[in-house]
Amino acid sequence: MGALVSLVAVAVLALLAFVAVASDDLRLVFGAVIPGVAFAVFLVGILARVIRWARAPVPFRIPTTAGQQKSLPWVKNSELDNPSGTLGVVGRMFLEVLFFRSLFRNTRVELITDREKVNYIGTKYLWAAAMAFHWSMLIVVFRHFRFFVEPVPQAVEIVQYLDGFFQVGVPVIYATSVLLILSLGYLLLRRLADAKVKYISLPTDYFALYLLLAIAISGFLMRHLEKVDIVNVKAAIAGWASFQLVVPEGVGALYFIHVFLVSVLLVYFPFSKLLHAPGVFLSPTRNLANNNRAKRHINPWNPPIIGHTYAEWEEEFHDKLVASGYVLDKE
Amino acid sequence: MYDAGKIIVGLVVFFVLATSPLWFNALTEKGPEAPKLVYPTNGSTECVETKDYMIPNHMDLLNLWRDDVVRKAKRDYVSSSNGKIFDMSLSRTCMDCHSNKAEFCDACHTYMAVTPYCWDCHVEPKGAN
Question: What pTM was estimated for this model as a whole?
């Protein structure tokens, strides 16, 4: 059900852009105004969200991570899984952000009914597809730099050269274009094929996948099948990046669908599960050294403790204590 | 805000990266405008196919020509726009009119950071460099 709702939502959005192209006024709205607004929402949305997260106090390090905590010198500790200092944290974050280490170690439980046995198996396909998707996405976004800036930095050309190393077709089919679509396809099928995963999947899970898939496919079609005049496209997009409101000429509906869906993605980003991108940097089980026992961490929302020392107590009841013959510390 | 130092550094990095095209364009002297092409000066007014087809699809045509010539020894191309027959040759047919590679091919290719491998095999026309 969720899968269908999301599919219809993405289809309606694409159709909206498709219909809008017919009118010249709406071309300007869909081809220049909406992308600009979407980018602003994306920027402000992410900044606001991260600042909101940063206001939450983190009183304690979370010690329940995999790996032995540093304790006595003869107990071998795991510096990467349960770091005691900054260096270990940097290592753990590096592996988490760039290589999804916790996902790599993810297991799922499977019940083998006829043998009455429980199996814990790795989910390496999920990890591989996630890696393929995220890295491809990064490279694809980076490659799009050529539309935004003039002159194009050499780094973009190097990435393009390596990405199109096999020189399949003209224009060259990039490895990451194919990987992006295949990995998204796998991630989508995974949700649909397994009844257990399907049961826990929400419309928002599918929406992000359909949206990204639609963006990737429309981009691929525009590059390889229904080609557009990319010189005009660049003149317009580099124009946006120089604060001009322009719409390219000589481009079909596919271009507007692509651009509109990217705008939707940008607006959707700061309000959805896609926020795991900045969120991964703020994961308390990843970015905090486990030094609970080595250092004192004071809970920031504790009320101030108003003490009453013995000296103060003696002071308060001074006369009564003296009258009763009590021996005071003071004297 | 807790850990404000680290988080603000992270946010600044994000902001700079996300808006990098804006300041990149602001800092470079070249404008975002498309290059002006030099059109044929030899009196020819007709291309192999229409201009609207050629601009986005010329690479497909060249690829087709290459395959036909190299693999099938076929040299005649019948234009689908005007029915005329053309010799399938980059250096003779195309470059006959578009003789200046630097001002014609390279103008857009450099602008779009496209590096076609035509010239891995073909000899660049004289005066291109």
Answer: 0.89
